[in-house]
Amino acid sequence: MKTSFLTTCCLLLSLHIVVAQDRVTGETFATRSVVLAQNGMVATSHPLATQIGLDILKSGGNAIDAAIAANAALGLMEPTGCGIGGDLFAIVWDGKTQKLYGLNASGRSPQSLTLEYFEEQGMEKIPSHGPLPVSVPGAVDGWFELHGKFGSKPMTDLLAPAIEYAEKGFPLTELIAWYIQRTVPFFESKGFPNIDDTYRQQNGGTLPDEGEIYKNPYLANTYRAIAEGGRDAFYKGDIAKTIGKFIKEQGGFLSAKDLATHRSEWVEPVSVNYRGYDVWELPPNGQGIAALQMLQILEGYDFANIEFGSAEHLHLFTEAKKLAFEDRAKYYADMDFFETPVERLLSDTYAEERRQQIGDRANTYGAGEISDGETIYMTVADKEGTMISLIQSNYRGMGSGMAPPKLGFMLQDRSELFSLKRGQANTYEPNKRPFHTIIPAFITKDGKPWVSFGVMGGDFQPQGHSQIVMNLVDFGMNLQEAGDAPRWDHTGGASPTGRTTEDTGLVRVESGIPYTTVRGMMDKGHRVGFTRGAYGGYQAILWDAENQVYQGASESRKDGQAAGY
């Protein structure tokens, strides 16, 4: 099978033609120019959500207000990637205090569900769908934490646009329609309750396609209750009771008590300096520091003399990824339960130790010895200099398949990312946050804000973050080019879920990577293939301090838009 697979991949890759955009300036792979504005900028994965955020800014709201309003709209307009059944993470640059803040708004596992239950059921991993992988949804609490610390407009104003669109409807965009047409039938085939009522019956019994009007009055009612009753309307009121009762009926364990005791956590972002730029991520239970570990390793190579997209570039990047992800598998977990050695993992000396293991050919690695699935990303900046980098997801696209009755959203399946092997950092425990893939990012220069950005896509996210930083810093691309540039990823290797490394894995490349690179990677012992939809989606805002101008970017892999005023 491997020979057949590789032969097929090689044939198809050799037929790929890189089509230039015939642009007068810049890189030929860029899809458009950078968006420029002086007073504010919004970049999301949906044009209507971007316009909602922009309207909030123009009416006197700040970046946090606009981000909440846009995220609420995305939960309606892009249910295949996010929603209030999921979690949220954010990094905020506050223009007033000139300081970075980090918010971990991820939920915890049910208090009544134990590791012994899974063992008694003979399970070696937590199922991907159904009631068992459901953890507490943290997004709504995340909104209110952000709003309480930085917001200015009432929540009723911020949720009003999404409520109106949910009631009156809006046309589905190309990519979201494609995902909905495939995902909703999948959940229906599983026999999960309320799928038809939530996604078809509210739309006249049909599933809308691209350009057709999609409505969700149930979600409008849920948003209205949250806007008027605050976060407790979700975590302690009828919504929580409905969720708890429903999950229990489905044989799950998430309860109204689990929601009532939920809390988000403000955390200190962590960073490494990459060639004079400080790149910031959030500490575990997320995987952000994997991007930092990769950059620490890659900083030891002179990319001024290595061509973008060359076999040498992809080889060094892939090997750095493998090293970082082995550490990810062993050390990344909820730090309330396991003391992840963040400082050591990000140190220069440790990066040098790991770098020394990289040779000229593809290799397998173990974790270092230390003694001490779809998503949305969006970013907003305002005239006061505040910038927010926000990511939000249900995991595996729409989530677990568990849609509580008459609420208009699906619950996440993040608990799938726990390990069921005893004694590991990420082993399942009650009231524990699972290992998380979604990560926001930020870059500062000399203590001042530079770029707020993120890249969606499960395990690809640290790889995407590292590629964006290198595109900007090493290869001199502008903000739009950095996101439009051809991407690649590496799959395989160890995972925090307990999977171990068996071989050198697979490098998957987009069609913009030349065949000479593919051939060169094969010569170095890599298996090379391709896929679609695995390379995430990117939004970014850059602050040009010299000209006092924001730059915005949103790439062509999604339906998104960057807009400012």
UniProtKB/TrEMBL annotation:
- Describe the processing and modification events after translation: Cleaved by autocatalysis into a large and a small subunit.
Q: Which residues form the active site?
A: 375 (nucleophile)
Q: Keywords assigned by UniProt?
A: Acyltransferase, Glutathione biosynthesis, Hydrolase, Signal, Transferase, Zymogen
Pathway info: Sulfur metabolism; glutathione metabolism
Spell out the protein name for this chain: Glutathione hydrolase proenzyme
Q: Which organism is it from?
A: Pelagihabitans pacificus
A GO molecular function term, named singly, is:
glutathione hydrolase activity
Concerning its family, UniProt says:
Belongs to the gamma-glutamyltransferase family.
Q: Which reaction does it catalyse?
A: glutathione + H2O = L-cysteinylglycine + L-glutamate; an S-substituted glutathione + H2O = an S-substituted L-cysteinylglycine + L-glutamate; an N-terminal (5-L-glutamyl)-[peptide] + an alpha-amino acid = 5-L-glutamyl amino acid + an N-terminal L-alpha-aminoacyl-[peptide]
- Signal peptide as annotated in the record: 1-20
| Assembly behavior | This enzyme consists of two polypeptide chains, which are synthesized in precursor form from a single polypeptide.
